[in-house]
Protein backbone atom coordinates (compact mmCIF):
# COMPACT_ATOMS: atom_id res chain seq x y z
CA UNK A 1 0.00 0.00 0.00
CA UNK A 2 1.41 3.42 -0.86
CA UNK A 3 2.33 5.42 2.23
CA UNK A 4 3.00 9.15 2.62
CA UNK A 5 6.25 9.28 0.57
CA UNK A 6 4.72 7.40 -2.36
CA UNK A 7 1.51 9.46 -2.32
CA UNK A 8 3.57 12.70 -2.07
CA UNK A 9 5.55 11.56 -5.13
CA UNK A 10 2.34 10.90 -7.07
CA UNK A 11 0.92 14.28 -5.97
CA UNK A 12 4.08 16.09 -7.14
CA UNK A 13 3.93 14.35 -10.51
CA UNK A 14 0.23 15.11 -10.99
CA UNK A 15 0.62 18.71 -9.85
CA UNK A 16 3.44 19.30 -12.32
CA UNK A 17 1.32 17.94 -15.16
CA UNK A 18 -2.27 18.95 -14.38
CA UNK A 19 -2.34 22.52 -13.13
CA UNK A 20 -4.62 24.76 -15.20
CA UNK A 21 -5.95 21.88 -17.29
CA UNK A 22 -9.72 21.56 -17.50
CA UNK A 23 -11.60 18.29 -17.10
CA UNK A 24 -13.84 18.07 -20.19
CA UNK A 25 -15.40 14.68 -19.58
CA UNK A 26 -15.52 12.23 -16.68
CA UNK A 27 -16.08 8.50 -17.21
CA UNK A 28 -16.28 5.97 -14.39
CA UNK A 29 -16.14 2.23 -15.08
CA UNK A 30 -16.52 1.08 -11.47
CA UNK A 31 -19.29 2.98 -9.74
CA UNK A 32 -18.55 1.65 -6.23
CA UNK A 33 -15.25 3.53 -6.07
CA UNK A 34 -17.17 6.80 -5.91
CA UNK A 35 -17.43 7.25 -2.18
CA UNK A 36 -20.05 9.21 -0.25
CA UNK A 37 -21.28 10.86 -3.48
CA UNK A 38 -23.77 9.84 -6.18
CA UNK A 39 -21.94 9.00 -9.41
CA UNK A 40 -24.02 11.45 -11.45
CA UNK A 41 -23.24 14.24 -8.97
CA UNK A 42 -19.57 13.31 -9.02
CA UNK A 43 -19.52 13.54 -12.82
CA UNK A 44 -21.43 16.84 -12.82
CA UNK A 45 -19.12 18.36 -10.21
CA UNK A 46 -15.92 17.38 -12.02
CA UNK A 47 -16.78 18.17 -15.64
CA UNK A 48 -15.74 21.59 -16.97
CA UNK A 49 -13.67 22.24 -13.85
CA UNK A 50 -10.13 23.55 -13.93
CA UNK A 51 -7.55 21.71 -11.83
CA UNK A 52 -5.84 24.35 -9.69
CA UNK A 53 -3.50 22.20 -7.62
CA UNK A 54 -2.76 18.59 -6.65
CA UNK A 55 -1.34 17.86 -3.20
CA UNK A 56 -1.56 15.22 -0.50
CA UNK A 57 -2.20 14.88 3.19
CA UNK A 58 -0.85 11.59 4.47
CA UNK A 59 -2.15 8.91 2.15
CA UNK A 60 -4.89 11.15 0.71
CA UNK A 61 -4.47 12.79 -2.70
CA UNK A 62 -6.32 16.07 -3.12
CA UNK A 63 -7.25 17.66 -6.43
CA UNK A 64 -8.23 21.29 -5.90
CA UNK A 65 -10.89 22.56 -8.32
CA UNK A 66 -12.48 26.03 -8.33
CA UNK A 67 -14.90 25.48 -5.48
CA UNK A 68 -14.39 21.83 -4.66
CA UNK A 69 -11.80 19.31 -3.55
CA UNK A 70 -11.68 15.86 -5.10
CA UNK A 71 -10.07 13.32 -2.77
CA UNK A 72 -8.50 10.05 -3.92
CA UNK A 73 -7.33 7.27 -1.64
CA UNK A 74 -5.24 4.63 -3.44
CA UNK A 75 -5.65 1.92 -0.75
CA UNK A 76 -3.79 -1.22 -1.89
CA UNK A 77 -3.09 -0.84 -5.59
CA UNK A 78 -4.56 2.42 -6.95
CA UNK A 79 -2.47 4.22 -9.59
CA UNK A 80 -2.83 7.44 -11.57
CA UNK A 81 -1.35 8.19 -14.96
CA UNK A 82 -1.57 10.83 -17.66
CA UNK A 83 -1.39 9.57 -21.23
CA UNK A 84 -3.18 9.79 -24.57
CA UNK A 85 -6.54 8.03 -24.77
CA UNK A 86 -5.09 4.92 -26.45
CA UNK A 87 -2.05 4.42 -24.24
CA UNK A 88 -2.28 2.42 -21.00
CA UNK A 89 0.88 2.21 -18.91
CA UNK A 90 -0.97 -0.14 -16.55
CA UNK A 91 -3.30 -3.08 -17.39
CA UNK A 92 -6.23 -1.54 -19.25
CA UNK A 93 -8.62 -4.06 -17.70
CA UNK A 94 -7.96 -2.28 -14.40
CA UNK A 95 -8.96 1.16 -15.70
CA UNK A 96 -11.69 2.41 -13.33
CA UNK A 97 -11.97 6.13 -14.01
CA UNK A 98 -10.78 8.57 -16.63
CA UNK A 99 -10.90 12.30 -17.16
CA UNK A 100 -10.53 13.79 -20.63
CA UNK A 101 -8.42 16.93 -20.28
CA UNK A 102 -8.47 20.20 -22.23
CA UNK A 103 -5.06 19.52 -23.82
CA UNK A 104 -6.22 16.21 -25.32
CA UNK A 105 -4.52 14.03 -22.67
CA UNK A 106 -6.33 11.66 -20.31
CA UNK A 107 -5.95 11.44 -16.55
CA UNK A 108 -6.58 7.77 -15.76
CA UNK A 109 -7.04 5.81 -12.55
CA UNK A 110 -6.26 2.08 -12.44
CA UNK A 111 -6.94 -0.26 -9.56
CA UNK A 112 -6.50 -4.04 -9.76
CA UNK A 113 -7.90 -4.67 -6.28
CA UNK A 114 -10.69 -2.07 -6.50
CA UNK A 115 -10.23 -0.85 -2.91
CA UNK A 116 -9.37 2.73 -3.87
CA UNK A 117 -11.95 5.47 -3.45
CA UNK A 118 -12.72 8.92 -4.80
CA UNK A 119 -15.02 11.61 -3.45
CA UNK A 120 -15.72 15.29 -3.98
CA UNK A 121 -16.77 18.01 -1.52
CA UNK A 122 -17.10 21.76 -1.33
CA UNK A 123 -13.92 23.39 -0.07
CA UNK A 124 -15.57 24.70 3.08
CA UNK A 125 -16.79 21.26 4.18
CA UNK A 126 -14.36 18.70 2.72
CA UNK A 127 -12.36 18.10 5.90
CA UNK A 128 -15.41 17.17 7.88
CA UNK A 129 -17.30 15.32 5.13
CA UNK A 130 -14.33 13.21 4.09
CA UNK A 131 -13.41 12.66 7.77
CA UNK A 132 -9.93 13.99 7.03
CA UNK A 133 -10.43 16.21 10.07
CA UNK A 134 -9.89 13.05 12.17
CA UNK A 135 -6.34 12.58 10.86
CA UNK A 136 -3.33 13.28 13.02
CA UNK A 137 -0.35 15.41 11.97
CA UNK A 138 2.02 14.27 9.24
CA UNK A 139 5.40 13.41 10.79
CA UNK A 140 7.35 15.93 8.70
CA UNK A 141 8.98 19.31 9.40
CA UNK A 142 9.57 18.41 13.06
CA UNK A 143 5.93 17.52 13.64
CA UNK A 144 4.28 16.48 15.82
CA UNK A 145 5.40 18.32 18.97
CA UNK A 146 6.64 15.99 21.72
CA UNK A 147 3.82 17.04 24.08
CA UNK A 148 1.23 15.94 21.50
CA UNK A 149 2.67 12.45 21.11
CA UNK A 150 3.20 12.02 24.85
CA UNK A 151 -0.44 12.91 25.56
CA UNK A 152 -1.62 10.40 22.93
CA UNK A 153 0.74 7.71 24.24
CA UNK A 154 -0.42 8.14 27.84
CA UNK A 155 -4.02 7.49 26.79
CA UNK A 156 -3.22 4.56 24.53
CA UNK A 157 -3.70 0.87 25.27
CA UNK A 158 -2.19 -0.15 21.95
CA UNK A 159 1.06 -1.86 21.06
CA UNK A 160 3.56 0.66 19.75
CA UNK A 161 3.33 -0.80 16.23
CA UNK A 162 -0.44 -0.24 16.13
CA UNK A 163 -0.02 3.20 17.71
CA UNK A 164 2.23 4.59 14.97
CA UNK A 165 0.07 3.00 12.26
CA UNK A 166 -3.04 4.73 13.66
CA UNK A 167 -3.77 7.53 11.16
CA UNK A 168 -5.63 9.55 13.80
CA UNK A 169 -2.38 9.77 15.78
CA UNK A 170 0.23 10.14 13.02
CA UNK A 171 -0.88 10.47 9.41
CA UNK A 172 0.89 8.79 6.53
CA UNK A 173 2.88 5.95 8.13
CA UNK A 174 2.08 2.47 6.83
CA UNK A 175 3.68 -0.89 7.45
CA UNK A 176 7.00 -0.37 5.62
CA UNK A 177 7.88 2.88 7.36
CA UNK A 178 6.54 1.71 10.74
CA UNK A 179 8.98 -1.21 10.58
CA UNK A 180 11.86 1.07 9.61
CA UNK A 181 11.08 3.77 12.19
CA UNK A 182 10.91 1.29 15.09
CA UNK A 183 14.15 -0.36 13.97
CA UNK A 184 15.97 3.00 13.85
CA UNK A 185 14.51 4.00 17.22
CA UNK A 186 15.59 0.58 18.65
CA UNK A 187 12.08 -0.10 19.99
CA UNK A 188 10.44 -3.53 19.96
CA UNK A 189 7.11 -3.13 18.09
CA UNK A 190 5.32 -5.39 20.60
CA UNK A 191 5.87 -3.13 23.56
CA UNK A 192 2.90 -1.34 25.00
CA UNK A 193 2.77 2.32 24.07
CA UNK A 194 2.40 3.24 27.74
CA UNK A 195 5.86 1.79 28.45
CA UNK A 196 7.66 4.27 26.16
CA UNK A 197 10.01 6.71 27.85
CA UNK A 198 10.14 10.38 26.88
CA UNK A 199 13.44 9.70 25.15
CA UNK A 200 11.89 6.91 23.08
CA UNK A 201 8.91 9.07 22.07
CA UNK A 202 11.37 11.72 20.91
CA UNK A 203 13.23 9.09 18.88
CA UNK A 204 9.97 8.09 17.19
CA UNK A 205 9.40 11.72 16.17
CA UNK A 206 12.99 12.11 15.03
CA UNK A 207 13.12 8.93 12.94
CA UNK A 208 9.61 9.23 11.50
CA UNK A 209 10.61 12.69 10.21
CA UNK A 210 14.00 11.58 8.91
CA UNK A 211 12.84 8.38 7.27
CA UNK A 212 9.72 9.83 5.61
CA UNK A 213 11.66 12.87 4.32
CA UNK A 214 14.44 10.72 2.93
CA UNK A 215 11.87 8.43 1.26
CA UNK A 216 10.13 11.49 -0.28
CA UNK A 217 13.49 12.72 -1.57
CA UNK A 218 14.04 9.29 -3.16
CA UNK A 219 10.50 9.24 -4.65
CA UNK A 220 9.26 6.45 -2.40
CA UNK A 221 9.76 2.72 -2.03
CA UNK A 222 9.16 0.55 -5.10
CA UNK A 223 8.00 -2.82 -3.93
CA UNK A 224 4.83 -4.58 -5.05
CA UNK A 225 3.50 -2.54 -7.96
CA UNK A 226 3.99 1.05 -6.91
CA UNK A 227 5.32 3.52 -9.50
CA UNK A 228 5.56 7.25 -9.04
CA UNK A 229 3.04 8.18 -11.75
CA UNK A 230 5.21 8.71 -14.78
CA UNK A 231 6.49 5.15 -14.50
CA UNK A 232 9.58 6.33 -12.64
CA UNK A 233 10.79 3.92 -9.96
CA UNK A 234 11.32 5.22 -6.43
CA UNK A 235 14.61 4.20 -4.82
CA UNK A 236 13.99 3.95 -1.07
CA UNK A 237 13.77 0.12 -1.25
CA UNK A 238 17.58 0.23 -1.39
CA UNK A 239 17.63 1.99 1.99
CA UNK A 240 15.49 -0.49 3.94
CA UNK A 241 17.23 -1.69 7.10
CA UNK A 242 14.70 -4.23 8.34
CA UNK A 243 11.55 -4.40 6.18
CA UNK A 244 11.52 -7.57 3.98
CA UNK A 245 14.87 -8.70 5.48
CA UNK A 246 13.63 -11.87 7.27
CA UNK A 247 16.55 -14.20 8.11
CA UNK A 248 19.09 -11.64 6.83
CA UNK A 249 21.73 -10.29 9.18
CA UNK A 250 21.03 -7.04 11.01
CA UNK A 251 23.26 -4.29 9.61
CA UNK A 252 24.00 -3.10 13.16
CA UNK A 253 24.62 -6.27 15.20
CA UNK A 254 24.65 -9.19 12.76
CA UNK A 255 21.73 -11.04 14.40
CA UNK A 256 19.06 -12.62 12.26
CA UNK A 257 16.05 -10.41 11.48
CA UNK A 258 12.81 -12.16 12.40
CA UNK A 259 9.35 -11.70 10.93
CA UNK A 260 6.11 -12.02 12.88
CA UNK A 261 2.59 -10.62 12.82
CA UNK A 262 2.19 -7.60 15.10
CA UNK A 263 -0.98 -5.50 15.01
CA UNK A 264 -2.06 -7.70 12.10
CA UNK A 265 0.87 -6.67 9.89
CA UNK A 266 4.05 -8.42 8.79
CA UNK A 267 6.62 -7.03 11.22
CA UNK A 268 10.39 -7.34 10.87
CA UNK A 269 12.43 -7.05 14.05
CA UNK A 270 16.02 -7.36 15.25
CA UNK A 271 15.39 -8.66 18.75
CA UNK A 272 18.92 -7.77 19.84
CA UNK A 273 18.75 -4.12 18.73
CA UNK A 274 15.05 -3.46 19.40
CA UNK A 275 14.32 -3.59 23.12
ZN1 LIG B 1 20.50 -5.81 15.36
Automatic annotation (TrEMBL):
Cofactor(s) for this UniProt protein: Zn(2+)
GO molecular function: 8-oxo-7,8-dihydroguanine DNA N-glycosylase activity; class I DNA-(apurinic or apyrimidinic site) endonuclease activity; damaged DNA binding; double-stranded DNA binding; zinc ion binding
InterPro entries the UniProt entry points to: DNA_glyclase_Znf_dom_DNA_BS (IPR015887), FPG_cat (IPR012319), FPG_Glyclase (IPR020629), FPG_N (IPR035937), H2TH_FPG (IPR015886), Ribosomal_uS13-like_H2TH (IPR010979), Znf_DNA_glyclase/AP_lyase (IPR000214)
Domain Formamidopyrimidine-DNA glycosylase catalytic: 2-116
Lineage, opening ranks: Bacteria, Bacillati, Mycoplasmatota, Mollicutes, Entomoplasmatales
PANTHER family linked: FORMAMIDOPYRIMIDINE-DNA GLYCOSYLASE (PTHR22993:SF9)
GO BP, sorted A to Z: base-excision repair
Hydrolase found in the keyword field: yes
Catalytic activity as recorded in UniProt: 2'-deoxyribonucleotide-(2'-deoxyribose 5'-phosphate)-2'-deoxyribonucleotide-DNA = a 3'-end 2'-deoxyribonucleotide-(2,3-dehydro-2,3-deoxyribose 5'-phosphate)-DNA + a 5'-end 5'-phospho-2'-deoxyribonucleoside-DNA + H(+); Hydrolysis of DNA containing ring-opened 7-methylguanine residues, releasing 2,6-diamino-4-hydroxy-5-(N-methyl)formamidopyrimidine
Keyword field: DNA damage, DNA repair, DNA-binding, Glycosidase, Hydrolase, Lyase, Metal-binding, Multifunctional enzyme, Zinc, Zinc-finger
Subunit note: Monomer.
CDD domains: EcFpg-like_N
Keyword DNA repair: yes
Protein name per the record: Formamidopyrimidine-DNA glycosylase
UniProt family annotation: Belongs to the FPG family.
Occurrences of domain FPG-type (ranges): 241-275
Amino acid sequence: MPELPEVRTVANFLNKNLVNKIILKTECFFEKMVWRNELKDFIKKTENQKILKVSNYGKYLMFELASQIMISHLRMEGKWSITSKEVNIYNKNHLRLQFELSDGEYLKYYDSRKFGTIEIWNKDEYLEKSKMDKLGPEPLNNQPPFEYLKAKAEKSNMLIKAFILDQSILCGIGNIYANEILFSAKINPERSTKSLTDKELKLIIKYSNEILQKAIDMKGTSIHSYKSGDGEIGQFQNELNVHLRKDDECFICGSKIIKKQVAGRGTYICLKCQK
